[in-house]
Amino acid sequence: MATFSQWWKKFSVKKEVKQFTWVCGREPVLVDEVARNIKRSLSPDSWDFFPLNAKEDSSESIWSEIYQYPLGVKPRLVVVREAQMLDTGRIVPLLKNRRLSPQNYVVFISSEEKIPREEGKDKKTQRPAYLRAFSGKGDVVECGPFTQATAPYAVAWVMGLKTMRRGVASHLLERANGNLRLTRDLCRKLALFDQEPTLSMVNDLLREYPRDSFSNALLAMDKKTALLALNELAPEEYSGVIGMLDANLELAGLVHDMLVSHRPMTEISRAAGSRRFLVPEILPVARNYDVGRRSAIRQVLSDADEALRRGERTAIMEAVIAFW
């Protein structure tokens, strides 16, 4: 088993990807980073990349996709979220027979905060059999927050998101108070500029933090982070936030509809225009933003906007979070 820092240290040097990866942890941003970097390293064709969810897709359809052969010469990648809900007993034979399909890669993403343990024959705790099967055949990664000891890897991770000087990366982390979602989102914005980031660019972007953090967290359906970000918002900003949420909802609908139409990622990013940095965050939850859900959310936003126009402030944004 590896921490994110241990996994990142090895990956950033060798750029090697194991055929199977199980990843979980308390820091969802780093969990997503493992999956993102694996996808970027493998670079599968759009028709050989399948993001699935064990809460929403049937077990048989997931295992069917895992066992399909690539349609082209590039590797095939299947990413399964909520993997803890799968029949984990089927993972052991999958790893055992991995040589039958060497170009098939699978990332299992579990929403568990820690690698599960169970009592062994000697009454000592150990990983379950399906995770022990990864030994020598795949990676098991637990993503917790960076610590003082792993701070250098946090800086290296930031520099991997967008090329910048180490001092600027350290400053970004410090100004973001270690909030990795905010750090990642800022790096995505900085990536839209050709020039190397400077301290002043970081400071200018961070002035937008409360509004952006709230909107982006809610878009990702991370209501806990949205509630925390709401504490940083001034009431006079609420109307502007409603407008930003409406724009983000429009983008989520665009991604949803294009995914349903099986449009390639390059076309989706192009259609998103200047807001393409949000597309990677929307992809895992895009299926939730169908026409019906968008219509319901727009009604909530309309009601909230009307209440704000009447001068009401109490519990308005909390209601938006609750009914998102």
Q: Describe it for me?
A:
It contains 16 helices and 8 strands. It is globular. The model has no long low-confidence stretch (mean pLDDT 88). With 324 residues, the protein is of the alpha/beta class. Helices cover 51% and strands 10% of the residues. The protein folds into 3 domains: 2-142, P-loop containing nucleotide triphosphate hydrolases (Rossmann fold, 3-Layer(aba) Sandwich); 151-207, Helicase, Ruva Protein, domain 3 (Orthogonal Bundle); 215-323.
How are the secondary structure elements laid out?
Layout: E1 2-3, H1 4-14, E2 20-24, H2 28-42, E3 49-53, H3 59-67, E4 76-81, H4 91-96, E5 104-109, E6 118-119, E7 125-126, H5 129-132, E8 138-142, H6 151-161, H7 166-175, H8 180-190, H9 199-206, H10 209-219, H11 223-230, H12 238-260, H13 265-272, H14 279-282, H15 291-309, H16 316-323
Parallel strand pairs: 1-8, 2-5, 2-8, 3-4, 4-5
Antiparallel strand pairs: 6-7
Helix pairs in contact: 1-6, 6-7, 7-9, 10-11, 10-12, 11-16, 12-15, 15-16
Describe what is shown at a glance:
With 324 residues, the chain is of the alpha/beta class.
Helix-residue proportion: 40-55%
Given as residue ranges, the uncertain stretches (5+ residues, pLDDT < 50) are none
Task: Tell me the distance between the termini.
Answer: 36 Å
Q: What share of the residues does DSSP label as strand, in percent? A: 5-15%
Number of helices: 16
Q: CATH topology of the largest domain, which one? A: Rossmann fold
Q: Which strand order does the major sheet show?
A: 1-8-2-5-4-3
Rounded Rg: 21 Å
Q: State the CATH architecture of the largest domain.
A: 3-Layer(aba) Sandwich
> What's the pLDDT, averaged over the residues?
88
